[in-house]
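We treat protein structure as text, and this decision shapes the records that our systems exchange. Because each token names a local backbone shape, the row as a whole describes the fold. An entry from our holdings is shown next, in its original layout:
>
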Amino acid sequence: MENITNVRGFRYWGAHTGVKSKRRDLGLIVSDKPASAAAVFTRNVVVAEPIKICREHIKNGRIQAIVINSGNANACTGKQGYIGAQAMIAAVSEELNIPREQILVASTGVIGRELPTEKIVAGIRENAAKLTSRKVAGSLLASAILTTDTFPKEGFVRFRLGDTEINMGAVAKGSGMIHPNMGTMLGFIMCDAAIKPELLQEMLGEVVNDTFNMITVDGDTSTNDMVAILSNGAAGNEEITEKDESYALFKTKLFELCEHLARMIVSDGEGASKLIEYRVKGLAAKDQARQIIRTVSDSALVKTALFGRDPNWGRIVAAAGRAGVSFDPDKTDLYISADTEIQILKGGQPLRVNLNELKRLMRSTEIAITLHFNQGEAEAKGWGCDLSYEYVRINAEYTT
């Protein structure tokens, strides 16, 4: 199976340093040469120390390495945490001879715990020499960045720009504290195409808005969220310098990869038993459609009804009505689908529905909910999950 190690000019590793008791907790990503780079970060006012550093480093548009620790968020850690994040960067810089400003640092885990800097720095120095492009390294990296995730999240796409074969791969983590405007998630995308950093930044922002910013598990936005892409030009294509056909194809493939990862994150939502795709159509503006999706997908009443396989569809319409978007309820259609599709509302009027059939459909592990308002051409998609007893247990016991 192809993974990030098929992207030319990158090496990876994942290791155990002792931050976690047993699982791997250190990830390293290195490009053979400085790569065009872009990143999107959490919109939370409270941010982890690594985010403060990365916001500055990404301004250069050139990054060669990323270092990630899991098991400790290095958030709300003050001066000690900031010094620790800088120490992680310094260790990578010294071991790999890369300028500090060309290194990104990321952390994920428990907020407010002192960063075990010595363990992490020692781990970086011990494992820097193990960086490799062998396939196993991709899997080790994907597992090293996890926290409460139950499985690694990886993706890969291959396409052609003219006569040049382009590879793009990614790893991500995320399971809880997931909410629009990015949740407790990290995503790292590697590509071997040549593209100007300014175009890459604009493209990534737009793609994230329609993928990672359209998922929710529990309504909480984290302090550590980051999606970064490095594109090092090792494929040898003619550099993308404008919004031409090559740019459009690159963006399409980036969207496919990010959507794939976003769905995986939601499907692994803490305690989740269902992946829900929300589709909103027929509004005047895309932002309106996004807002309704965010409100409905984050409704505790909608999520618990889905968990209980309860065909209480009125909760969906009620949540849409409080989203702050003006629409005519008497023009609204509602559909729920899995292996089949059932229309529940037509023009605001409830249809005769076989409740047993609807209950059967709601037993599915993947469900689509469609709201069509018939008042415009704009539409959007988003993803969420149900809310279970297990979610409460996981988060009640998270630090104990």
